[in-house]
Amino acid sequence: MLMKNMSRVGAVAAPALLAILLSGCSTSKNKADTLYVARDVSTLYNSGKARLDRGQYKLAAALFDEVERQHPYSPWARRAQLMSSFSYYLNQDYAESISAAQRFLSIHTGNKDAPYAYYLIALCYYEQIADVTRDQKITQQALDALGELIRRYPDTRYAADARLKVDLVNDHLAGKEMEVGRFYQRRGQWLAATLRFRSVVDKYQTTTHTPEALERLVESYLSLGIPAEAQKAAAVLGRNYPGTKWYERSYKLMQEHPPTA
Asked: Could you count the other beta carbons within 10 Å of the beta carbon of residue 30?
């Protein structure tokens, strides 16, 4: 399943960043969690940490939010914003996680932890990617967020992981184009199908869908009555993917429909 594979690639850098953020914090026993009573900053923060360690992500996020609300000018508030975003992410409250990370970036743009905030935003979009039969708006948002991280912080480990994800996202978007193109083919709408397959070849040429896209271009061009264009697509397919079933199919089609001189 694509989403399971994506999730495994997902939080490569998250545990390391979490350890950094939590380093130096007290591990004293937590008091009872009472969100609406004024409490000192270390007690609030460590209560959030304890809840996070126990897998109570939503409550942990609420406690980290309280750190920011009750002690907005404390150095702990900056750390709590990221921890809140991370907790919401673990709880799959992606909109809340994005909001917390964006709030952190709006206040602490040049902070050393800014790359991780961008990474969390990208992860939140990335892990919401649906199957190729559904609208791909969230997929494009994931691609944009990953690209922003790579552009701003190209030498970080978060950017390295983002590059891997970009390849998977592009493969996903190409899969959507292929799904729509095949739909048009089944309806005999050859020009519309050609535009979709051409998009895969032009925009997503490094993905796993390119050989099939080229073969289906051969089919579409032949159906449109332009065998010369079909021959060009078949030649590209033969040059780059000679051992695939898609080349075998295109070769057979071109033998049956050779272009006239």
From this structure: 15
C-alpha atoms less than 13 angstroms from C-alpha of 176 in its C-beta half-sphere: 18
Q: Is the pTM of this model over 0.85?
A: no
Helices (H), the chain: 2-10, 14-22, 41-53, 57-70, 75-90, 94-107, 114-126, 137-152, 157-186, 190-203, 210-223, 227-240, 245-256
Domains observed in the chain: 2-176 (1.25.40.10), 187-261 (1.25.40.10)
CB atoms within 10 A of CB 153: 17
3-state secondary structure of 49: helix
Instruction: Print burial letters for 223-240: b (CB count within 10 Å at least 16), e (below 16).
Output: beeebebbbbbbebbbee
Per-residue pLDDT of the chain (261 residues; tens, 9 = 90+): 344 444 444 444 444 444 444 444 444 444 444 344 567 888 889 999 999 999 999 999 999 999 988 888 888 888 999 999 999 999 999 999 999 999 999 988 888 999 999 999 999 999 988 765 666 788 889 999 999 999 999 999 999 999 999 998 999 899 999 999 999 999 999 999 999 999 999 999 999 999 999 999 999 999 999 999 999 999 999 999 999 999 999 999 999 887 665
Question: Can you say whether the dihedral through the CA atoms of 28, 29, 31, 35 is positive or negative?
Answer: positive
